[in-house]
Amino acid sequence: GGWPRPPQPTAAPGLMVNPAGVPGLELKLGALVLLLGVTLLFGFAPFWLVRGAGWCWAGPDVRLRVSGWTGAFAGGVFLATCLLALLPHSLRSTSAAFGAAGITLQFPLPEFVVAAGFFLVLVLEQVALALSRPSPPSEQRQPLLAGSSFQNASPPPRCRGRLQADSGPTPALRAFLLLFSLSLHSALEGLAVGLLEDGREVLEVCLALSVHKSLVAASLAFQLRQGRLRRSAVASCLLMFAAMSPLGIGVGMGLTETKMSARHQLARSALEGLATGTFVYVTFMEVVPQQLQSTASRIPKVAAMLLGFAAVTAALFVKL
């Protein structure tokens, strides 16, 4: 007896929700927000600290020393990021991609891809400098990371926090190279987080990336601050860098249901290798030489560089 029960509505296969996957999805969304907030906070923190500490009222000698120390610390951060994070990850990624494709390498192709990225940037820089209008010999010897107004012997009459725009193409080229290499690596890191399925792994990797990206964001802000870029250009670079990891996480979340083919893995590893070569060039040809070319405060600068290297090393230990 009784009335027949009405048929229960069935959801389409593509709309089925796995309850076990909801916590992982929530953690990934939380990681997206956390990485974005941490990068923005530590990226813009140097500007707030400089303004709050009365930087404009400091003497030129004090400003020169502090600028040199912070730049050396940033150089140590980039050096450790290059040698301990980007380069090993790129080599492993390229080798794993060829292994997944069933290709046995007899030639050091992962290292060759990194070298190709290095020489690609070298050629582009020299071509850009050759095609630009002639400059005095003293300017031709300057690297892409040209000295800022803080590093000049005669500081500007008033400190308003805006860097003077450079008439040549080198500051924009330097900013593009630095931003491209770091942003691409951040996007790939976010993609790896988005592809994770275990909620515990998502949490651990997210916390480790937060520590690492906070150091890189602050160092990137210092390096861009020392270039001849306007404050709006520096802010745009920081916003773009901060958006890369969340973008990678979003793409990874969308790709969790699909399996990346071997061809896609090869393309991804090749792109990462080129970006790593770009970062190697910027680090060893621009950032580190700029910090060591001055004769003032050599020992404190080396100590600050070692401190930055040690900070990234500690952050990488957290990942382990």
From TrEMBL:
Q: Tell me the keywords, alphabetical order.
A: Membrane, Transmembrane, Transmembrane helix
**Which Pfam families does the annotation name?**
Zip (PF02535)
Give the UniProt entry's GO cellular component terms: plasma membrane
Which InterPro entries does the UniProt entry name for this protein?
Answer: ZIP (IPR003689)
Record keyword Metal-binding present: no
Which stretches of sequence are listed as region Disordered? 139-164
Keyword Membrane appears in the UniProt entry: yes
Q: What's a single GO MF annotation on this record?
A: zinc ion transmembrane transporter activity
- Compartments reported by the entry: Membrane
Provide the topology term for how it sits in the membrane: Multi-pass membrane protein
**Bilayer-crossing regions:** 29-50, 62-87, 112-131, 234-255, 267-287, 299-318
Q: What is this protein called?
A: Solute carrier family 39 member 1
Species in which this protein is naturally found: Tetraodon nigroviridis
